[in-house]
Amino acid sequence: MKTNKKELGKEQNTKIESEKTENNKSIETDEKNSTTIEGKKPSLDDLSPKSKKFAKIYNAVRFIVIIAAGVALIYASYSLTESYLNYKDDEKKYASLNDMFIQDTKGNTGSDSSAGLNGNKALNNSEVSDSNSTANSTNSNTSNTGSSTTSSNSSSSDTLNYSADSKKWVWNYDAMLKYNDEAKGYIKLDGTRIQYPIFEHSDNKYYLKHGADKIYNGAGAIFIDYRTAGLEGDMCILYGHNMLDGSMFKEIMNFRDKDFCKKHPTFDIYIGRKHYIYYVFSVFSGKDVDEKIYQYGFENKSDFQSWIDRVYSKSTYKFDTRKPTTDDKIIMCSTCVDDYGNRQLVCMYRGEEVVD
Predict the structure, then answer these.
(1) Which domain holds residue 191?
(2) Biased-composition ranges for Polar residues (predicted)?
(3) What is the pLDDT, as a whole number, of residue 31?
C-alpha cells in the first residue's frame, strides 16, 4: 500500500508538471503570435472566423457610407447650382418684363430696365411709433411727378422731381395681358425689389411653381388667392415666396423693422389700367391656419369690420395713417417665415387714384 501511494504521488506530480509545461508553451505561442500581429498590419488571416465575418461586414458598411456621402454631396452641389441658375434666369426674365414698361419722353419703350424703377413718386415722411403709442390721424400725401392725384387722406407732401431723367416707368396693362392672360395688375414698393405683376389662377398651387411666363420655376410669381373677391373686392390676399436671393416677397420680412416701416408707408398698386396708392396700416406675424386672419369673404359689413379691428390691433407698430373702414378696399400681402406655418403679413388700404 505504501509503494502504491508513492507511485500515485509521482504520477500526479508528473501530470502537474506536464500541464505547467503545456501552459507555458501556450503562453509563449500567444505572445509570439501577439508580437507577430503587432509587428505587422493585421490581415483577415490573423483573425478568427467570427472576427473575419465582422470585419467584412464593417468594411462593406463603411464603403456604402462613403458612397452615400459622395452621392449626397454631388446632389447637394447640383441642387445649389440649379437653384442659383434658376435665380439668375428668374431675375433676367423679370428685368426684361419690367423693361417692357420703360418709356422715354417720346413714348418709346426704353432699353434700360433700371430706369424709373423708383418711379417719379414723391417722398413720404409718414412716421410710425411703437404699438403702445397713439397714432396720428393725418396721412402724408404721396404724388407722382408729372401726374395728378385725387386724395382724401393727405394734406401735404415733399416732392422730388427727376427733371434730368428722360425715361420713366409706365404701366401698360394691355401689353401685360399679351404676355400672360392671367395678369390682374402690378405691385411696386419703391426702393425695393418688390416690382412684380400680379396673377390669378383657379388653383393657388399653380403660381407657387410657375413664373410670369407660365414656365415651371421654383420662385413662382405674385398671385391672388382665388378664394377672395380679387383686387376689387373688400379684401384681397396676395401671396409670394420668401426667396433667399431677396426676390419675390422676401422684403415683406423687412416690415418687422421700424425704420423700414418709416421709409415705406405706401405701395403702388396697378389694377387693370388704373393706378392707386395703398397705405400700410398693419404689419404682424401670424399662422396660415388662422381662419380669423385668412378670411376669404365676409357675410356682412359687421363681419368685415370685426376682421379690420382684429388685424389693426395685431400690428407690431402703429402707423401714421387712419384706421380703415368697411368702405375701404384692403390688400393683405402674405409670405412664409418658415416651414411651420408662420407667416409675415402686411395689410394696406386703397388711397388715392393716380392719373399717370
Answers:
(1) 100-355
(2) 109-128
(3) 52
Q: Which three cell numbers stand for residue 17?
A: 508538471
Nearest-angstrom CA–CA distance, 204 and 228: 11
Helix (H) or strand (E) holding 7: helix 2-39
Of 231, 282, 235, 233, which is closest to residue 255 (Cα–Cα)?
A: 282
Considering Cα of 193, then 196, then 198, then 202, what sign does the dihedral take?
Answer: negative
Report yes or no: 356 and 149 within 8 Å, Cβ to Cβ.
no
Residues 319, 125: Cα–Cα separation, whole Å: 12
| pLDDT band per the 50, 70, 90 thresholds, residue 333 | very high
**Secondary element (H or E) of residue 71:** helix 49-99
> Among 126, 128, 121, 163, which residue's Cα sits nearest to residue 276?
121
DSSP track, 323-355: PP-TTS-EEEEEEESSSSSEEEEEEEEEEEEEE
- Distance between CA atoms of residues 137 and 128, nearest Å: 12
Is residue 179 in a domain? yes
pLDDT tens per residue, range 82-97: 666 666 777 788 888 8
Residues 6+ apart with CB under 8 A from 278: 266, 267, 268, 269, 331, 348, 349, 350, 351
CA-to-CA distance for 319 and 29, rounded, in angstroms? 90
Q: What is the CA radius of gyration of the chain?
A: 37
- CATH number, position 350: 2.40.260.10
| Number of structural domains in the chain | 1
The answer to whether position 338 is within a domain reads yes
Per-residue pLDDT tens digits for 276-310: 999 999 999 999 999 999 999 999 999 999 999 99
**pLDDT band, very low/low/confident/very high, at 241 (cuts 50, 70, 90):** very high
